[in-house]
C-alpha cells in the first residue's frame, strides 16, 4: 500500500531510516487538509526534515515513514531524542554568548591558555560527549527566551547583542537565505546591515530604524544583487524613509521583488506619490505591502491608478480600504492583484 501524501513513501518497505534531524512529538491529533500535509496522532514521533518560518514544518513520521507538512503548534520537542545538528548549534550559541552557570563551560570560556577557536572546538565536543552537561544545558536554555533561533534556511534573532550578531554572521552559509531581527536596537541593525543584505530575505520587526539606519540601508540597496524580499514591520518608518527607499529602488536596484511596510503608522498619504512612482517605474517588484499605515483613501486611489501601468504587482492593503477600492472606476481590471488584510 502506498502513502496517500504527496511526499509519502511506499509503506511496503520493511526498513525505516533512523532520524537524522530533530525529533518532535505530536501533542494532539491533526487531520491533513491538503495533499502535501501529513496527518498526525497524539504521541506520534516525527523527524523534522525542514523548519520554516511560516508555521509549517516538513516532517517524517517515525511510525508510518510518511512525509508532509505539519503545523508547528501541534508538536513539541522530544526531550528524549538524540542531539541534532540544529539543536547543537543553538546550545553552542547559548553557551558561548550567555553567562551559563555550569562549571565546565565557565572553565573553558574563562581560560586564558587557549584561543577563541579552540574554546569553540572544546565547547562543541563537550556538549556532544557529556550527557549530564547536555541535560543541564538543555534545561537552562529551555527556561530562557531564545535570542537566537536557527532554521534550515535562516536564523531569527530577538533582542540580539552585537556579540550575538557577530557569532551568527560567522556561521551563516549559502544554505541560510533569510535573517529575521526582532526588537533590536538601531545601532545593532546598522552594524549588521552589510551582512543582512547578502541574504535573499530580510525581516526587521518591532525595531526603531533611525534616519542613519535608513541612509545605510539605501546605500547598500543600491546595486544590490542578493536581496529579493525586504520586510520592515513596525519599524517607525516615515514618509521620508519611504521616499528614500523607493527612490533607490527606482534608480539603482533591479533585484528586489517584495517590499513590505506593514504596521508603520508614520507612513501617511504623503508617501502615496513615492509609492505610485515606484510601482510605475520599477518592473522588478512583484509585491508591495502597505497595510496598517496611515495612508488615506485619496492616497490609496492614487496608488491604485499606478497598478494600471504595472500589470504584475500585487498590492496588500487594510480591509478598511475595501470600499475605496471597490468604488474605484477601474477596479475590475486590477482586483485580482489587490489583497486585503484585517
TrEMBL record:
Signal sequence residues: none
Domain SH3: 19-80
Alphabetical UniProt keywords: GTPase activation, Leucine-rich repeat, Repeat, SH3 domain
UniProt keyword Repeat present: yes
Gene Ontology terms for molecular function: GTPase activator activity; small GTPase binding
CDD domains linked to this entry: SH3_Src_like
GO cellular component: cytosol; nucleus; perinuclear region of cytoplasm
InterPro entries: Leu-rich_rpt, LRR_dom_sf, RanGap, SH3-like_dom_sf, SH3_domain
Keyword Nucleotide-binding: no
Protein known as: SH3 domain-containing protein
Species per Swiss-Prot/TrEMBL record: Amphimedon queenslandica (Sponge)
Amino acid at each position: 500500500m502506498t502513502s496517500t501524501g504527496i511526499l509519502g513513501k511506499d509503506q511496503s518497505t520493511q526498513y525505516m531510516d533512523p532520524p537524522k534531524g530533530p525529533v518532535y512529538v505530536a501533542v494532539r491529533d491533526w487531520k491533513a487538509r491538503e495533499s502535501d500535509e501529513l496527518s498526525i496522532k497524539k504521541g506520534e514521533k516525527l523527524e523534522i526534515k525542514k523548519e520554516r518560518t511560516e508555521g509549517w514544518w516538513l516532517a517524517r513520521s517515525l511510525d508510518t515513514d510518511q512525509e508532509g507538512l505539519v503545523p508547528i503548534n501541534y508538536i513539541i520537542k522530544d526531550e528524549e531524542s538524540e542531539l541534532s545538528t540544529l539543536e547543537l548549534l543553538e546550545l553552542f550559541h547559548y553557551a558561548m554568548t550567555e553567562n551559563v552557570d555550569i562549571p565546565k563551560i565557565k572553565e573553558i570560556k574563562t581560560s586564558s591558555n587557549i584561543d577563541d577557536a579552540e574554546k569553540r572546538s572544546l565547547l562543541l565536543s563537550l556538549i556532544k560527549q557529556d550527557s549530564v552537561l547536555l541535560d543541564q544545558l538543555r534545561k537552562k536554555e529551555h527556561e530562557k527566551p531564545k535570542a537566537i533561533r536557527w532554521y534550515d534556511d535562516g536564523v531569527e534573532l530577538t533582542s540580539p547583542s552585537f556579540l550575538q550578531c557577530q557569532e551568527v554572521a560567522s556561521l551563516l552559509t549559502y544554505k541560510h537565505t533569510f535573517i529575521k531581527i526582532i526588537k533590536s536596537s538601531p545601532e545593532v541593525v546598522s552594524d549588521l546591515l552589510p551582512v543582512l543584505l547578502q541574504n535573499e530575505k530580510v525581516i526587521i520587526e518591532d525595531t526603531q530604524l533611525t534616519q542613519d539606519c535608513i541612509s545605510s540601508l539605501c546605500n547598500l540597496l543600491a546595486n544590490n544583487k542578493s536581496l529579493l524580499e525586504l520586510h520592515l514591520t513596525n519599524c517607525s518608518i516615515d514618509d521620508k524613509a519611504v521616499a528614500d527607499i523607493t527612490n533607490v529602488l527606482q534608480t539603482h536596484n533591479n533585484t528586489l521583488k517584495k517590499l513590505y511596510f506593514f504596521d508603520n503608522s508614520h507612513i501617511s498619504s504623503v508617501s502615496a506619490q513615492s509609492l505610485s512612482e515606484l510601482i510605475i517605474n520599477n518592473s522588478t517588484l512583484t509585491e508591495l505591502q502597505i497595510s496598517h499605515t496611515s495612508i488615506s483613501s485619496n492616497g490609496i486611489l492614487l496608488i491604485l491608478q499606478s497598478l494600471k501601468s504595472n500589470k504584475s504587482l500585487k498590492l496588500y492593503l487594510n480591509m478598511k480600504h475595501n470600499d475605496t477600492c471597490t468604488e474605484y472606476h477601474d477596479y475590475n481590471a486590477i482586483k485580482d492583484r489587490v489583497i486585503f488584510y484585517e
